[in-house]
Amino acid sequence: MAVGATGSATTTQTAANDSVSATKPTLGYDDFLKLLLAQMQNQDPLKPIDSTEYVSQLATFSNVEQGIKQNAKLDQILITSNLSQAGNAIGKVVTSADGTISGVVRSVRIDDLGATALLANGKEIELTSGVTISQQ
What is the set of domains in the chain, with CATH numbers? Predict the structure, then answer.
């Protein structure tokens, strides 16, 4: 089992998790140890794998696992930021970056794309850069 194969599978899984949920990877540390043990048990006795390769695989897996945890924490920070922004916008007047849509915010919807203000006039504005939020 090559390091690249392990990294590719984990990277693919990470990409899939980013679109669904970055908090629960499919393969965990225990799974990696089982794969490593199976690799050791099934290696060719005439050509054993160098122990430094095992250490390298373990270090690579550890780095990927830490990256997954870090992404999950960053997602939590982003959600908290969106909730804070949403709370500050309710009851205030928002104006789109181009000035074509404006109104009082009645509620805010938060999804994977960010925060969207739902206005009293029935229109919606994504709360992105360039949007102006002001008092009534």
Answer: 3-84 (no CATH), 90-134 (2.30.30)
